[in-house]
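Input chain follows. Return structure tokens only.
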Amino acid sequence: MTSGNKFARHPLRKTLSIFSVGSLLLVAAAVTAVTLSGSSPAAAATVGATTPFTSYEAESGTLGGGATTVSLTTAPTTKFSSAPLEASGHSYVHFSGTGQFVWFTNTTGKPINAINLRYSMPDTAAGGGTTATLDLSVNGVFRQALNVNSKQTWLYENDSTYNGNDQTPADGTARVYFDEVHTFITGDPIQPGSTFAIEKNAANTAAFYDIDVVDVEQVAAPLAQPANSISITDCGAVADNNPTNGTGDPGAVDSTNAIQTCINQAQSQSKILWIPQGTFYLKGTAGLGATGITIAGAGPWYSTIYRQVPLPNTVTLGAIFGLTSTTVQNFHIDTNATSRATVDGAGGSMDTTGTNWVANNIWTQHTMSGYWASGTGGTVENCRITAVWADGINFNNVSLGASTGNNMTATNNFVRGTGDDAIAVNSVAYNNYGSGNIYYSPMLNATLTNNTSIAPWGGKGIAVYGGSGHVVQNNYVSDTARYVGLGAGRFGVNGTDLTGATLTGNVVVRSGGNGFGQGQPAVHVGNSGDGLNSGTVSNVTLSGNTVTSSVYDAVGISTSTNITVANTTVTSPWRDGIAVSPPNYPASAGSASITGNTVTGLTAGHSAYLNNNPGNYIVTQSGNNW
């Protein structure tokens, strides 16, 4: 979140390795590889999530038929967005004519039977989007048409509607370019060594297509219904398997009451709630509530809960699931929401609280948020969150009426294309709902490890706002469009002070942005911006992080005390390396120790280190390699 009250909504564990220079992102279950500009095999580190899929950046494929690559080459000079700014790798492949394509070789070592595409296609002249197809070929032979749409992209803004939800093209500059669609591959799997291509042919009628990333995987067979479980079909839920492609099937059966009935039975009988293969609709504005049970599906490629809200919507929406001390695993969540506004059908995926809750292997798309979670001892792990309207994972101390948020963990999650912070720890001091302040306990001991955060178009990659004892370790963050990649501070005037956090071993690539015209750094610690220059930020350690190709400053330090920046490797920043009190991030007072850091690849006129307020912000330096 970038301004205002963030909490108005009150009601495979392996590693990823960094290899040689380039922009090809490969993520697989056994071996995970990310190629970073400016890195080298000697600098290999283990960061990010290991996933069951492999991602091919389109710009690293082989182009043909006149297809072109579009890339971000200079820092933005306005606060507004652009397609290359929002793209993974800040680059994509553009199709504007029939016969254009990009192809890849299956280097995964496994047969591929499923594909996920991150892409953009045009809006309509009046807004609201449309549908089309793109072709997939294998070894040069047409295999199938992929359904694509622009119904859940394309918002517009100007100075007065900045960061708003305007869907009228005439009202300003576009943002929210990319969406994602996934499907099983028709026919035989794509064998190792075979080629596959995304193509614009005569039947693919959109004026253009921008291809960002192609994810491929070998999806295992569906999981079987576990013992001691109740299937939602036993209570009358009915699957509808017509493709959604940006909106739901108007003929689908509403299974809301049937699913809630089964939840109630599972709770009273101490059984597992089973979601079998199929897409099950919640039609309307009601959500589902569960306490103290396990909700399980056949796998996120097989079992889907789809919320279809009549639009325009006039009812305040809660999350699809309101969960207390509950485990959810192995299914997919999707909706027809067209922005983060209530009128456009945006509600959260899962609002969670209680103790020792778990979310495991859930794939969430097009909801307001992925996980809005409080309580004690909860875990989000092995999840995929793509193309959501606001936060991916938000750990807080207010969800579902809670007042604490302690000892929560996010590990091995893949988050791409969020409209707010991809992953955040948000400690709230108080909220005021018109009848006086409600106070909350500061958050303690959040742990964020080995997560991947890519291309948030409307927020930070990973952010820690307030509390103490937090650990952010071995995460991979890249391609923020507007804001800080990795941040530690305080959120707003009602946020809790940040009095202790360790951010170590993280890799931050092509991050930072010009949101609000601020030239935000790739990594930031201190007040200003979200902290509104208020409160305390202290006892924060940044150590062993790697910051590559930052769009503005690599590391920015604002008002804060007892900050350590140690053993950081900064490569090829587009502005300065480590900056105390950079533009729009004042360090009016405070102290920091800056030791053992390396900055290389500076461009003319920029500095490895700056302290713009040395008389008031006291820095101790040693062992740096400028």
